[in-house]
Design goal:
The protein is an alpha+beta fold and about 160 residues long. It has a domain of about 80 residues: Translation Initiation Factor IF3, CATH 3.30.110. The protein is built from 5 helices and 4 strands; from the N terminus they run ααβαβαββα. The protein has a 4-stranded mixed β-sheet, with helices on one face. Helix 3 links the parallel strand 1 and strand 2. It is elongated. The mean pLDDT is about 75.
Amino acid sequence: MAFLDNFKNALRPYDDDDYIENEATEEETAAFEPVAEPQPAPAQEEYSEPKPKFGKKEHRAYAAPQPAPAPEKARMRLMLITPTEFDEAAEIADNLKDRRAVLMNVEKTDNETARRLIDFLSGVVYALGGKIMRISAQAYVLTPTNVDLVGEGMADLESAGLYF
């Protein structure tokens, strides 16, 4: 039961008896202490802050943001690879995984191996969210997701179907 009494006391920090005791002490102290009459506050001068004017626009000149120079390690690299065998596809895929663009020249590769390389690397580029673009009859640019190809001839290449 002591637990319940403590719990009740915690929820109700004071009893009605506390009010009676406080009232008695207030009456006793009021009888012994002189009551000071309230005095009016001194008159203050009315002061108003100037109201801000909305609607006027302040014209500020801002400096155009300048790109920070890229550190040596963060510079974009374009890897030029001329594969002769299908086994070199893994090296090209690793470059794409490391976010490096690849210019692949298949002039020295036989047609069947070149077709297999292009098919395999098209899948790699698709899986990484990149792009592959044919820039000549035997040269392709493979870009990871962080590289965009821009230029004057891009529309011509896209309309000719050379852009995957």
